[in-house]
Amino acid sequence: MRPLLSRLATILVAACLLFTSQALTTPQRAAAADPGYLMVHFTGEGATNQQMYLSHSTDGVHWNDLNGGGMVLRSTVGTKGVRDPALVRSPDGSKYWIIATDLCISCGQDWNASINNGSRNLVVWESTDLVTWSDPWLLNVAGAIPDGRNAWAPEAIWDPETNDYVLYWATNVPLDGKTKHRIFYARTSDFRTITTPQIYIDRPGAQEIIDTQIIEVPSGVGNYRYVRASGDGQITLEGSNSILGTWTNLGNLSGIGLTGSMAEGPMWMKFNGTNKWALYLDQYATNRGYMPVTTTDPSNPASYQQLASGTYNMGGTKKRHGWILNMTAAEESRVLARWPNTAAQRLQSFNFQDRYVRHTNLDVRIDPNVSPVEDSRFRLRTGLAGTGTVSFESVNMPGYFLRHVNYDFQLARFDGSSQFAADASFRQVAGLADSTWSSFQSYNFPDRYIRHYAYYLKLDPITTATARSDATFKVTS
Q: Which residues are CB-neighbours of 424 under 8 A, at least 6 positions away?
């Protein structure tokens, strides 16, 4: 009896672990108690639009831009542009990664260069709470592929069979007489090191495939545990019972008028608490961004339906190829508190009214005719040190705040420490030179205020009329 009981206990534990893994790791967690959805995406071409943006929905089809429609993460590595992000949650929910294409069209490379000699890296951020993110790093995924010429549209899914992630992406490579994009994969546990890349999906002849995303389907729905949607000349659906096993072609969405010449970037979402899915498709041909189609069986092409235009709303920004996470209540609370729609504002000098506070090479000064003007735009957040204070977050360097160090000012990335929070928090008070303007008193050195001196920002005690003027600013749009 003891050996049998022991084996039964082992089986039960393994089943519980598997259930937990499936519930927490797929992008379609979709528990009935989950209150909302988070979309990470980019918005278009150019250095500003090819960054990370977030949108939120309570029903999965009506979306609101977070952070006032501004970027939430900016790449400072590689091409300094990012597209096609995926948002990955760890099995135990303790860690998150954003992985994205290292690509900046019209701000470094054109399409021809990026196809034939683009970045072989992905850009990766890591977080433990979904709101405080690491500095980005580059993960070289295509460098080990002979004559691999780029690395595009990364995705990742937890594989319970091997307890790690299957990371997959598209690389343009000459092989068997055909130079085209194929999907490669590698395994990883930390998105810092990977196994040797292998071919994952290769379409016949000259047909390319660039975008693909896998969803895990609960038992009782369709005939497959996994379904993937791919942009490969059509929006092709395939099914399998193993991520790296044999996949069966199930058909495509041409029957509802959606072909690969019209749409790309398939992005899955499961509606919370029900066996209903949305497959979002990027309408690249008409430059309109995402639209949803819905189904109750992802493996059945005939079950998909387009929604009438008035039944969904994508928000104020154009949503391009991204990822949707079903958030827990705790995750949603943190995200909405971190990125409210706070307006972008400027700080105008009282005694040099043609000059505004701006950052340049992470230093902080007052200048006229700031170019680009975004260098002088900040969001006045609830202070990092708490209620009653404000902190200044850069609009075009999100996550970076004005901070004093040795009474000098710099633009620095928030490291989560209490020291940084104190150094970057201020009390907004009536202007010392004009009460209709504002002055900013240091949180941790209350005898000192933000002022400019020789056009650079300093933290000084204020004892003269000149200093009072230097320490007075107008918060203006």
A: 383, 384, 385, 391, 392, 401, 402, 403, 404, 412, 414
